[in-house]
Amino acid sequence: MHICHVNLASGFSGGERQTLTLIKQQLAMGYQLTVVANPKSPFADEIRALEQCQLVLCKHYTRSHQRSITADCDVVHVHEGRAIYWALLQRLIHGVPYIVTRRIDNPLKRKWLSQLAYTRASTLVGLSSEIVRQITLRHPQANVATIPSSPVQYPVSNTDVDAIKAQFANKFLVIQAANMYAHKGFDVTIGAAKELEKHSPQVHICLLGDGKARAELEKQAQGLGNISFMGKQSAMGNWFAAADLLVHPSYSEGLGSVILEAMATGLPAVGTKAGGIPDIINHETNGYLIPSGDQGEITYAQISVNPLIPASTICSK
């Protein structure tokens, strides 16, 4: 089978990592692949390094619509974003079918071009039950499938893991890893840190990520000694190995791929009852589920899984 993957994002975040994981798996299975990517994105560099893929550089969805790009392709696959319009145009011009994978749980746009792109897709894929629900609300007649992400596997450097552990020696190390947007719930984590500093000094929280909300979050955390802003990380495997707990208190979330990645390494996780997170976490079986925005619940969850804190100090919820 010959598949054309299209990702026109200029950055490199969850969607790009998931697409790259899928591409590597398909190459291992013997698929023939063409990849259309933004030349400004690190994603294009990652594809170039694979060598087995035919790489087509494309700055905008209105460009690079030669018949030759998909002449031998059975299907085009896109991860939402502007790429859906590239796939739509390629189908209208050359008749190549396409599949859309949606990663976010927001309501679908009512813009005519977006609706046309979804209507003309052969199949729509949602990464969680909540995403599928949102898709079917707008496109009830569409062919929709639920296919969760596969966890990205990161390399681990024992030297770097030891360095992280030494930096936070004798601490119960909690991490939150995400782009710093308002819906990711970093404010909830900071609120929990304020409570934890009073009665659980053994807990230290590292916020891994960057984004437009960072400056405001740093103001909220001013004066706290039990929380550190570590910036965006490329070697997440080291943090998963060094940490004792992952928290992911999003207000909305398509799936929560970082939770899958953490669980794959054996790291326990606390997440909210938002979006697709309940598809991953079975409460008190493989993690903790808490209400969105409830800093009291996330504080309790961190204490209750912390072996450094005597059981007698844990307050009832």
Walk me through this protein's architecture:
The protein is of the alpha/beta class and 317 residues long. It folds into two domains: 145 residues, 3-Deoxy-D-manno-octulosonic-acid transferase, N-terminal domain (Rossmann fold); 156 residues, Glycogen Phosphorylase B (Rossmann fold, 3-Layer(aba) Sandwich), CATH 3.40.50.2000. It has 13 helices and 13 strands. It has a seven-stranded parallel beta sheet with strand order 3-2-1-4-5-6-7, sandwiched between helices. A six-stranded parallel beta sheet has the order 10-9-8-11-12-13, sandwiched between helices. Strand 8, helix 8 and strand 9 form a beta-alpha-beta unit. The radius of gyration is 21 Å and the shape is globular. The C terminus is likely disordered.
Q: Main attributes?
A:
317 residues, alpha/beta, Rossmann fold, 2 domains, 7-stranded parallel β-sheet, 6-stranded parallel β-sheet, 13 helices, 38% helix, globular, disordered C terminus, Glycosyltransferase family 4 protein, Glyco_trans_4-like_N, Glycosyltransferase_grp1
The neighbouring-strand order within the major sheet is 3-2-1-4-5-6-7
* Major sheet characteristics: 7 strands, parallel
Structural class: alpha/beta
Q: What oligomeric assembly is this protein in? A: single chain
Portion of residues in beta strands equals 15-25%
Mean pLDDT over all positions: 91
The CATH architecture of the largest domain would be 3-Layer(aba) Sandwich
What's the count of strands?
Answer: 13
Helical content class: 25-40%
The backbone outline, from C-alpha atoms, is globular
* Low-pLDDT regions: 309-317
Count of DSSP helices? 13
How far the N terminus sits from the C terminus, by CA atoms, comes to 54 Å
Cα Rg: 21 Å
CATH topology of the largest domain: Rossmann fold
What is the top-level CATH class of the largest domain?
A: Alpha Beta
- Count of individual domains: 2
